[in-house]
Amino acid sequence: MSDTENRRPETGAFFQRDRDWHPPAFAPGYKTSVLRSPRKALLSLDNTISEITGPVFGHSIIGELDNDLIHNFAKPGESAIGERIIVHGRVLDERGRPVAGALLEFWQANAGGRYRHKKESYLAALDPNFGGCGRTITDENGYYVFRTIRPGAYPWPNGVNDWRPAHIHFSVFGHGFAQRLITQMYFEGDPMIWKCPIVGTIPDRRAIEQLIAPLDWANTIPMDSRAYKFDIVLRGRRSTFFENRPEGN
Amino acid sequence: MVQDLGYLKETASQTAGPYVHIGLTPNFGGISGVFERDLGSVMVNDGTLGERITVTGRVIDGAGAPLKDAVIEIWQADAAGLYNSPSETRGAADPNFTGWGRCPTSAEDGTFVFETVKPGRVPFKDGRLMAPHITLWIVARGINIGLHTRLYFPDEAAANAEDPLLQRIEHRHRAETLVAGGQAPNYLFDIHLQGEKETVFLDI
């Protein structure tokens, strides 16, 4: 048993989401959002037990190659084509505390910007040795690592000539369903980031910069792989000093 | 100047995009051999306690078309009203029930289906019981931040009438958007993203 497992579970409500930091639902520069965004205001409510709780996944679901996208779809003895990279970092909450046992799922295009998906028709070639999905669970310090191929930029039908910057999609579970998050990681120095209508849905430049993983030279493995570091922050929990009493409200 | 509170900012959300299946349901999306089965595709087993139910629905856009590229996740209590989560402190939930499921909408007609059990009631913060409900979270291309909502049951009129969340909906007719149709054990729940029948979404 780790320290984390011995610690009493936290039951406080999560900090309110700062919806000026997140992208709004209706962002007309990203055309698909126009018909897929609610027009009425959200109903705001402090967390109940339905949001404070959430599923937690055991390491038993994770296979040996689940965090190795270079090999988890490749034929034996072969590997995916492209720039070999390691992506690693920590999952923290807004209080700076590590989120242990968080399930991370990630997916991406191959080195040429081609996704392995039935509905994808971009003319760049599939890599027979690259699937593009992986997953892992953070350790007791909230740490995760996986290796993959750096994805290529990708054209998409929004404007006539819109291209996505190189990106990796991330899905994150914390400890409460209110922390559920899907986001995208971008790469330091990519000029496409500042042209992208999906990146541009985020109103605050600092919030965009938080999605850009720096090159982590110190962790680059000589003659093997470069490294990028990407920390993820989930909602923090209020301390439970003075909880509502039953007769309250 | 005062002390810095020292809190970090939450990582900003981005859309899951049209190829969300590659990461969340790869077998459904056509990638086999990486994960044995898609996570969240099975919530119950032969030993699960409670009334078996099926929830079927669609997610409909502002032009009336069902989304064929969305992924829905649900989170709910077991039949006794306990969550299968470390933050559940009232007792041990049914070990044969995950409480969590994930289903992509079909590429043909946009339907999603969950085989689950009817949840028991759980308390609101002040101790009052909430009506039985299932939390839903919807992501898709065009949705910049996952949408939270709840499904309530049409055969729980008395409990729904005293539910603290439903009571908070100022425009009373909008509360009906959170009550499923159909009847036990087959419930129907269409989610309208926009327009006249727009579902109530939660900032919670």
TrEMBL record, chain A:
<protein>
    <submittedName>
        <fullName>Protocatechuate 3,4-dioxygenase subunit beta</fullName>
        <ecNumber>1.13.11.3</ecNumber>
    </submittedName>
</protein>
<dbReference type="GO" id="GO:0008199">
    <property type="term" value="F:ferric iron binding"/>
</dbReference>
<feature type="region of interest" description="Disordered">
    <location>
        <begin position="1"/>
        <end position="20"/>
    </location>
</feature>
<dbReference type="InterPro" id="IPR015889">
    <property type="entry name" value="Intradiol_dOase_core"/>
</dbReference>
<dbReference type="InterPro" id="IPR012785">
    <property type="entry name" value="Protocat_dOase_b"/>
</dbReference>
<feature type="domain" description="Intradiol ring-cleavage dioxygenases">
    <location>
        <begin position="87"/>
        <end position="115"/>
    </location>
</feature>
<dbReference type="GO" id="GO:0019619">
    <property type="term" value="P:3,4-dihydroxybenzoate catabolic process"/>
</dbReference>
<dbReference type="InterPro" id="IPR050770">
    <property type="entry name" value="Intradiol_RC_Dioxygenase"/>
</dbReference>
<dbReference type="InterPro" id="IPR024756">
    <property type="entry name" value="PCDO_beta_N"/>
</dbReference>
<dbReference type="GO" id="GO:0018578">
    <property type="term" value="F:protocatechuate 3,4-dioxygenase activity"/>
</dbReference>
<keyword id="KW-0560">Oxidoreductase</keyword>
<keyword id="KW-0223">Dioxygenase</keyword>
<dbReference type="Pfam" id="PF00775">
    <property type="entry name" value="Dioxygenase_C"/>
</dbReference>
<dbReference type="InterPro" id="IPR000627">
    <property type="entry name" value="Intradiol_dOase_C"/>
</dbReference>
<comment type="similarity">
    <text>Belongs to the intradiol ring-cleavage dioxygenase family.</text>
</comment>
<dbReference type="Pfam" id="PF12391">
    <property type="entry name" value="PCDO_beta_N"/>
</dbReference>
